[in-house]
């Protein structure tokens, strides 16, 4: 079980190439790029994708460079507005979500499932009504997660005082806040990790603060504006912090899973396998929900 | 009515960019490209897409150049095998399809609808059972086409002795053969048009011959290996032939529609709006079926 991801290697698969371009399109769309600017930005994206290194690199490496180029071209973060909106929508749901956790038989597990639900929800696609329906399905404790290491997770929360919590997206971070609050109420010392600079709709310090995390726990950045957590691109300070053996690491989202799956059994990955490539690698269906302990590093 | 497409202008929309790359992927997949060859070909595709001219060009212009580059890189036509297979599958269905037309109340309209059904069917996705189900739905004369100029079409077939029939894909060409046979049985003089060289799964002389068109009607090529019918890229001979005013033109498929929609009311477009962009331009749903007379040129 500790080596469940040892045979898996994330790399760029053929299906990733059109998805890269689709992601560039989304960035342009939410950033309000239109008219003649679309082919101008897209040509630059194609140049970036042509020059990318696809040998032994994850898709996160490629999309990090691509999104950086888009931000440079637009002279702005195209996702800034949408991130604030996602946080705002999720914050409106916060009281009801807190109530669901408080009244559930196993609040910590409920909060963990809620955090996975938060990763499922794409606030760009669903409206708030749909979000609540998705949450209800995720919180149905009679339905199994596709990979469920909840028991190990509960034990580790008991044993480890220190928790390093790698955040994923804005909006979703409000769901993470509820799990962080549960951990803190159990006396855990939580450090939340954000990106040092914007990339896609990933949580930065500003977004985490906007979601109410400031004052609740320590927030650090990983020194990087890359998709996922590409350790060699992170600051030395973060690498040192990440490397401590005496902590539980909670890793949210597919990007962090993609880049950290081989980094050891102290990591618990909470995410949905949103893309077909990752789901196939895992031997699961697209949309599978996981609370999965990592393999030995 | 004669100007139904006058307000429509086909160009490269944002959604087209990821679709270009998806098409390149399909070409590699059916052409058996794998391993390290995938990023090698894809990098070249990105270079091609970066250099493409997106101002006032149709998607067909861009994909024509891209597919030409892929063929050059592979030193082969990746679709050659799949085209022969599509023809073979469709030829097995030929006797049953002929019977359906022969026993229908309006054989010419049934054959036209069958030709549209042939455009609907993607032999790469459906197996032969599904194909027959799709055909049955298309031939249900109680269900309306989304655009139906059948009455005009019948009148024009009565009036015009000469028919220029622009073929689309292999496999589909067997369905076209049945409509061509109906036209010939009414004394029409049909000239079928194929591509001069391979592009995607479009019909070449070899494919048309394989589908049984040789000996049935005259077959000419358009002098081009472009997607659709980009007139300025076609041979002078074909341009002269296409320009004759006294003929009915039957144009099969979305690519031909995209490139010929403004070329006059003597053209009847038989196709399915397979892509969202074209469907949206037409104000129809994706998958809409059309037997549509063109606008004045």
UniProtKB/TrEMBL annotation, chains A, B:
Damage-control phosphatase ARMT1-like metal-binding domain residues: 13-290
InterPro entries: ARMT-1-like_metal-bd_sf, ARMT1-like_metal-bd, PH1575-like
Pfam families: ARMT1-like_dom
Gene3D superfamilies: Uncharacterised protein PF01937, DUF89, domain 2, Uncharacterised protein PF01937, DUF89, domain 3
Protein name as catalogued: Damage-control phosphatase ARMT1-like metal-binding domain-containing protein
């Amino acid at each position: 079980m500790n080596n469940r991801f040892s045979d898996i290697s994330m790399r760029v698969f053929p299906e990733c190439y059109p998805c890269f371009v689709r992601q560039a399109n989304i960035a342009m769309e939410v950033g309000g790029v239109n008219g003649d600017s679309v082919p101008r930005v897209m040509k630059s994206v194609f140049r970036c994708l042509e020059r990318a290194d696809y040998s032994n690199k994850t898709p996160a490496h490629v999309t990090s460079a691509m999104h950086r180029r888009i931000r440079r071209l637009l002279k702005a973060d195209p996702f800034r507005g949408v991130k604030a909106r996602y946080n705002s929508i999720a914050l409106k749901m916060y009281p009801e979500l807190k109530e669901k956790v408080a009244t559930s038989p196993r609040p910590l597990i409920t909060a963990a499932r809620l955090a996975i639900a938060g990763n499922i929800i794409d606030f760009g696609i669903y409206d708030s009504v749909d979000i609540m329906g998705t949450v209800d399905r995720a919180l149905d404790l009679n339905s199994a997660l596709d990979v469920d290491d909840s028991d190990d997770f509960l034990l580790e929360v008991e044993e480890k005082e220190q928790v390093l919590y790698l955040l994923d997206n804005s909006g979703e971070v409000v769901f993470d806040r509820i799990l962080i609050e549960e951990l803190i109420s159990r006396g855990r010392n939580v450090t939340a990790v954000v990106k040092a600079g914007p990339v896609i709709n990933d949580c930065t310090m500003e977004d985490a603060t906007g979601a109410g995390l400031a004052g609740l726990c320590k927030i650090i950045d990983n020194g990087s504006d890359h998709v996922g957590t590409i350790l060699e691109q992170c600051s030395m300070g973060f690498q040192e912090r990440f490397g401590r053996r005496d902590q539980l690491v909670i890793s949210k989202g597919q990007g962090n899973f993609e880049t950290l799956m081989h980094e050891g059994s102290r990591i618990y990955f909470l995410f949905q396998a949103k893309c077909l490539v990752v789901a196939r690698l895992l031997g699961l269906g697209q949309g599978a929900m996981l609370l999965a302990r990592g393999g030995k590093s």
